[in-house]
Structure formats: C-alpha cells, structure tokens
Amino acid sequence: MNQMCFPGLRLxxxxxxxxxxxxxxxxxxxxxxTKAGVxxxxxxxxxINQYPLAYDQATRLKMYSNHLTLGEVGCxxxxxxxxxxxxxxxxxxxxxxxxxxxxxxDFPTRLAAALDVSIHWGIMRLKSGGDSGRWKVGELxxxxxxxxxxxxxxxxxxxxxxxDAALALLDYGKxxxxxxxxxxNRNWEHGIRMISMWPDILVDVGDDLGTxxxxxxxxxxxxxxxxxxxxxxxRDCLNSHMDVWRxxxxxxxx
Length: 254
What we know:
Elements: E1 4-6, E2 9-11, E3 14-19, H1 23-36, E4 41-45, H2 57-64, H3 70-88, E5 93-98, E6 101-103, H4 107-114, E7 123-125, E8 134-139, E9 145-149, E10 158-162, H5 163-172, H6 180-184, H7 187-190, E11 194-198, E12 202-204, H8 206-209, H9 223-253
Parallel strand pairs: 3-4, 3-5, 7-11
Antiparallel strand pairs: 1-2, 5-10, 6-12, 7-10, 8-9, 9-11
Helix pairs in contact: 3-5
C-alpha cells in the first residue's frame, strides 16, 4: 500500500479501525472521508470473547489487581495487527483512525502537511488533548504547531505512525498488560518520540455514537492489593516525570 496522491496532495495510507457490524459508525466515517476525497480502507476489528495467549494475566493482576476488559483486549489487538501490517509493508507512514471521529474541513491538506515536518517523530497524534503541560517542539508547513506533552493525550482516535515505531511497538507490546492507549503513552519504556499537532484535525464523538467497549467494573481490592497498585502507579508517575525532564532538557538544547 503506497502513499496516495490526489489533486496535488500526498497522503499516507489511511486505515480505519471498525467492527464489521458497526454500521452507523462505518457510515459516519465513510461519508466524511468520501466527501474529503481521502482514500481509505477499513480494518475489520473483531469482538474478543476470551483472553488471548498474549494477555499477561499474572503481571496485570500483580500490578493493578484487575483485568483488562475484553473490549480493551479487542482494541489492543486491532491496533497491534495494524502495526503488523505496516511492518510488513513498504510504507514509511500510515494514518490510523477510529470510526468515531469527526474530521475538520481541512483534514486532507493538514494531514498532507504533517508528512513534511523536519523534526524526528515516531507517533504523531492528530489532536493535542488540551494545552496543559505541553511545549512546542516544531511547526507544520501550514503554520500549525507540534507539541510534546507532560502527560501524553489519551486515546487512539487518530494518529500517524512510522514503520520503525510500529516495529518497536510490536516488540514492546507483545505481552498485553495495559489498554492500548496507556501502553502507547509509556514512552519512557518503549522510547518512541511522541508528539501531537495543533490545531486538532479531528474530534472524538464516541459519546454521540455510543461506545463499543464495555467499561471496567470497580475492582474490590484488599489492603495489600491497594498498596501494591499505588506502588506501581507511583513508580510509573516518577518514571514519566523523569522522562519529561529529559525531553524538555533535550528540547532546550536544540
């Protein structure tokens, strides 16, 4: 799958994650991409009815004393298999969208502009997730801004990913422990340069379309389990902040 060229724009392959029976969501995203003139293909996500061998139940329970939901497992599996597809391809960059987003009118031109930034990146989210704790690391050719973040934006609604980042995630994420967006945001462990673009070129409208992922029920934890969970979360917070300081120092040195 090669980069798409149409009316003067060079676009990456666009992959839309969608359950095959999510007819309303598919119609929603198809109408937008067709109107925008953006070629795309669906990745047919599957409903997971049992935990796969890749799910590291022992580590998950040791750290958090609760399971991932099967919906979270399905979401993880979909993105992981898309990364496998990118790794097998001859492409450098793919655009991954979920089917519950609203695209801005300038989506095609700004997506094309994102391919021409001069700074190094592995994953570029197509929405910034707010302005708290972010700092500028570059500019887009169209005047937009690229940011790094103290706390990375949540979700996997829309992002660009390079092939080398996909290869790194395939190795790092082969044991399923965290929801896929949490796993992506553990960049102090996998080492991938993650940035976002602003202004956003998509909006999450999943609440309007209804979720396809069942929420996790509040776990009943013993005191020991609560303390262990707080330890792991505190350690993650410390490691995250240390990595932020490192990235900000590097940004200041450039």
